[in-house]
Amino acid sequence: MKNVLIALFSGILLFACDAPQHVSSTNQAFLYNKNIGRLHPQFNIYHRSETESQLDFLLDASEFQYMKRGNDSTLRSSIKVSITLHSKLNTTDILDSISTNLSDVSEGKNDKYLHGEMKFKATYPNSYYLEVNVSDQNRHSNYRSFLLVDKTDHSNRQNFLLLSDDGREYFGNDIAATDKVQILCNTNQTHFIVKYYKGRVHLPGPPFSLKYQAPVFNSRPDSIYSLTIPGGTGVSFRKHGMYLIQADSSKSGGITLLRFYDGFPEVTNADLLVNSLRYITNKDEFEKLHESKDKKAAVDKYWLELAGNEDRARELISKYYNRVQDANRYFTSYTEGWRTDRGMLYLVFGPPDAVYKTGTGETWEYGMKHYANTLSFIFVHQSNPLSDNDYQLRRDPQYKTPWYKTVEAWRQGKVYAE
């Protein structure tokens, strides 16, 4: 476990001078593959006022290279964070550009996170894209990504911040039953409307099925109540489901808190072990697993029969359920990440070799670009009051052969794209 102590850096602000590049031409496969790149920062965007917003970042100190410099025997990191604001994707215009330099002293294991913020100019009612670069200058490694700055109204999630009862900022919306959450809004109000939704449970149809109709999200909450949270006070949300916190109930926007199950996003229960196998099991196998009195033992037996020996079975189990956990981290929206279209493909095919983002969605590619056998999937972003991470796959009959081929590889004890 990382030390919960967070070091706060305000940094020295400088004008960035890196040459701009077209946004959507950048392969961002590292976003969904923890084995690509050495840096895995986390970000929040918060609108401070009518004209100013900020990027909050969280950096894992264990990913830094610490070095001695000159006669100084102290081990130090050297990190540069740069941001460039663009009016839209596929443009080289620069509306604002700022960077900050960070230096941290090694504490042995460096078992901590570094937290900081960078302010930039952005006005309502507009949307922008923020180019973010994080560079470990000792190791010469770099992280580069693009974040949507949604300043189209005063009610969406970027007008809120979530803090723990001891003041630590949440990077992500999933909370535990024991958490006490402070909710900060840029209007400085302490009274909120809470719309509670029970968990929406469904599995997507296969990628080749044109008969599959994605469920239409029902925005009608299961209950509504008011909540007052005085400054510096935290509140717990114990019931499983989703909580849309709104400053103005006449608007559709707000910030969503997620309570799927204890231990989320990890694989922590036998039901999840079974349910997530639906993509590679046939109907009879799945029903038999579900009806087992000891589901954990039944799942172990299932994998052992596929693999043929215990060592291979352990390897397959590790790969498959690590993908379940990663899908939960990357693709969770109003349902668990492994249950989404992107999660389904991620479990079966693994992390894509290329990810290209646009203003309306993203494209995944498996294989070498421009090669005839390269497999491409297009996901379209969906408008959803509970999540800005809701994407649907454009299904196509051409996916039928590669889908069944890849599923069969799992069933023969193999992993696609090893």
What does this entry look like structurally?
With 418 residues, the chain is an alpha+beta fold. It has 6 helices and 20 strands. The protein has a 4-stranded mixed beta sheet, with no helix packed on it. It has a 4-stranded antiparallel beta sheet with strand order 7-6-9-10, with no helix packed on it. Strand 18 and strand 19 form a beta hairpin. Helix 3 packs across helix 4 and helix 4 runs antiparallel to helix 5. The longest helix is centred in the C-terminal third of the chain and has 22 residues. The protein is globular, with a radius of gyration of 23 Å. The two termini are 29 Å apart. The N terminus is likely disordered.
Quick synopsis:
With 418 residues, the chain is an alpha+beta fold.
Task: Walk me through the topology.
Blueprint: E1 6-9, E2 42-47, E3 52-60, E4 67-69, E5 72-76, E6 79-86, E7 96-102, E8 113-121, E9 126-136, E10 141-151, E11 160-164, E12 181-185, E13 191-197, E14 223-228, E15 241-246, E16 255-259, H1 270-275, H2 283-291, H3 295-307, H4 310-331, H5 341-349, E17 354-357, E18 361-366, E19 375-381, E20 391-393, H6 400-411
Task: State the end-to-end distance.
Answer: 29 Å
Q: Which outline best applies?
A: globular
Number of DSSP helices?
A: 6
Q: Which oligomeric form is depicted? A: single chain
Order of helices and strands: EEEEEEEEEEEEEEEEHHHHHEEEEH
From the alpha carbons, calculate the radius of gyration and give it in angstroms.
23 Å
Query: What is the percent of helical residues?
Result: 10-25%
Count all strands and give the number. 20
Mean pLDDT figure? 89
Give unreliable regions as ranges. Answer: 1-23
Please summarize the sheet with the most strands: 4 strands, mixed
* Alpha-beta content class: alpha+beta
Q: Walk across the major sheet and give the strand order.
A: 1-8-3-2
Strand fraction band? 25-35%
